[in-house]
């Protein structure tokens, strides 16, 4: 490294493998005032106050953008908090996250609650953090004010959310709110499971994973997603299906898009890497809603990613205390439903992608560029001129074994404990500054920030 205060750039990164819009190429990246301002062929001799030389095994990748994270602070900070969540994110190469509006108390359903959440996050964020608003019965009058205060869109449920302070909408209420959001071009993101279908399904009590899986049938997702599609069609609103687990829904999503319905879709690492057939009975760390499904379903989700029906991969990091996962009894009917994986997403997906011959460039499109586009973060998600210098150094040929006690998220429970993974993030940089976990250098983002 050099230290020359008269240098043109604050930071120069040189490497044989740099993931730019041209693919993985040999480049020198010049960074000044937190932005990428030069991209030149390796050997150009860009001069920086600090210079990072990558070795042949390292790839400079854009920082991941995770638009589905439950931080839970304030109110349930014993589950997770901004400090622990953003440490875990940074350790996994995530440089921006968007926090979900529920599981915190109060939920983010009005401007006062948004201000309370921002106050709770102040001085604790190691990466950049934005916020979704919530759409619940009775708060239609708060939606525009939340939008004007910078939330990135609005989340609703079509069944009980798991916490009483964030009640769900009926399909008709969702349509009414969608019509409101269409007026100012906001986005409705939907937990799409149909409560009536689940009411008719078997109960989930006991330690048999097969019983839990039967309690959250694919049909519950399929019916709810059909509602989202039609209500988006009727209102002209933009809609986004969260954490897709049922591959059955892919054809109708593709058909709706051909019809011009404004709908996008995400899935999550647990649906792409885990299998219902391999979940041990009583292993409640694997419980999430909708559930991890069968091997055949998993392969169709990968196909949906490859053909573009599914837009992006995000974590749905939904942690809780170990006690709430009921690990002693292993009762799937009692345990909190959520997978903790914020730090592991890139390695999880890369491990599976490389088996399928899917290149790292495609993985980062799903986990960085596409989520950034979903949230309207036009200066995030790529290593490109004018973009924020948010990046990570990744060693795709290195390996790791997950030790849940060494992860940064607050409670030491994850279904990936002991799992061997390909790929290791060795450092993460936010606006050209290496994240050192000592200083919380993240910013709180508002919709429209550039």
Automatic annotation (TrEMBL):
Residues 59-433 form the Amidohydrolase-related domain. Its cofactor is Zn(2+). Keywords: Hydrolase, Metal-binding, Purine metabolism, Zinc. Transmembrane segments: none annotated. Its EC number is 3.5.2.5. Pathway: Nitrogen metabolism; (S)-allantoin degradation; allantoate from (S)-allantoin: step 1/1. GO terms for molecular function: allantoinase activity; cobalt ion binding; zinc ion binding. GO terms for cellular component: cytoplasm. Homotetramer. PANTHER family: ALLANTOINASE (PTHR43668:SF2). This is allantoinase.
